[in-house]
Design a protein that fits this description.
Blueprint lengths: L1 H13 L1 H24 L5 H10 L1 H9 L12 H13 L6 H6 L3 H26 L1 H8 L3 H37 L8 H30 L2 H21 L8 H9 L3 E4 L23 E4 L1 H25 L4
Antiparallel strand pairs: 1-2
Helix pairs in contact: 1-9, 2-7, 2-9, 3-5, 4-5, 7-9, 7-10, 7-11, 9-10, 10-11, 10-13, 12-13
């Protein structure tokens, strides 16, 4: 088995399309990190001087009537200047917590998931399109070993690439925050690294699922079509049928990567009628519910296990052209 895995890793390394996709998995997150670093850069002295010069009238008016600008009556001209500069520059400060909750963290996970999945399905799809799968079975007729060796190779490459890129991304954000002497909450780096590694694990599972689907359908195009249809139509169908938000695919991804998330539920009409001493939690009037990491992992884990099972059975029993 070790020899077979080594052969598949070598074939992966020499597949140009796979190398391009893996290169993009490095470059795109790097560009995202660079964009975040640039868009949250500190305001320079030149920018401050330009804002002050262009808004001298507003600063004077603020000094005379601070309350009109949301400042206390005792505010001096410097306070007014700081307020006007802040309004006109409007750059948020870089924050590890903000990148995890609503920033670029989920975008990096989405990019990695898409690219390693495409790399996996492209790799094995080529074997079916070129007809080399039958040649491989001449050297190793035990089909389960062939399926497993390819799966291990794809999983290893996806895991290493995703984990390294995620680690580099969060270390870059953390180093930038420290270099700018911005406050960092205790444990923020640990939480961010865990966020990235959970995202890498999800991307790896997606790559394995893409590989299994391609071995089942024997076509890269068919796999991409099915995945696209599920991603686009799946959520719409669930919403149309009125099924709870906890079954939406994106919510379960969020639960996995963020180590739990919340979702909305409909509450009884009586909850909108205020009553003295009403306990909203006990009456079921809280519209938010918790979706745990375990439930999210079970949601996608079940789909992955079923896909792998169908793929292995199909590969063992169907004729190989």
């Amino acid at each position: 088995m070790t020899r077979l895995v080594g052969v598949e890793l070598t074939r992966l390394r020499w597949r140009r399309a796979v190398l391009v996709l893996l290169l993009l998995a490095v470059v795109i997150p790097a560009l995202i990190a660079a964009a975040r670093v640039w868009s949250t850069r500190p305001v320079s002295e030149g920018e401050i001087a330009s804002v002050v010069h262009g808004n001298a009238g507003q600063i004077s008016m603020c000094a005379e009537h601070p309350r009109r600008f949301g400042l206390p009556p005792s505010a001096d001209e410097q306070a007014c200047t700081d307020q006007i500069v802040e309004w006109n520059t409007g750059r948020e400060k870089l924050s590890l917590a903000r990148e995890r909750t609503g920033g670029s963290g989920m975008g990096v996970v989405a990019v990695l998931t898409t690219l390693v999945l495409l790399a996996a399905t492209t790799f094995v799809g080529h074997d079916w399109n070129s007809g080399s799968m039958s040649n491989q079975l001449l050297f190793e007729p035990r089909r389960t070993r062939i399926w497993t060796a390819k799966a291990i190779a794809v999983t290893l490459v996806a895991l290493v690439a995703s984990a390294l890129v995620s680690t580099a991304y969060w270390l870059t954000i953390w180093a930038t925050v420290k270099a700018r002497d911005l406050p960092v909450v205790d444990g923020a780096l640990r939480d961010s690294m865990a966020y990235g590694w959970r995202g890498a694990a999800y991307a790896t599972a997606a790559a394995l699922g893409g590989y299994a689907l391609t071995m089942l359908f024997r076509s890269t195009v068919a796999t991409i079509g099915v995945l696209f249809g599920v991603a686009v139509a799946g959520g719409i169908v669930i919403a149309t049928l009125g099924i709870g938000e906890q079954w939406q695919p994106q919510k379960n991804v969020s639960a996995i990567v963020k180590n739990g998330t919340t979702y909305w539920v409909e509450v009884p009409q009586s909850c909108y009628q205020s009553r003295p001493g009403q306990d909203t939690a006990a009456d079921g009037c809280d519209p938010t519910r918790h979706l745990s990491l375990a439930r999210g992992a079970g949601y996608y884990g079940t789909a992955l296990v079923l896909t792998i099972g169908a793929s292995v059975v199909s590969f063992r029993r169907r004729d190989v052209p």
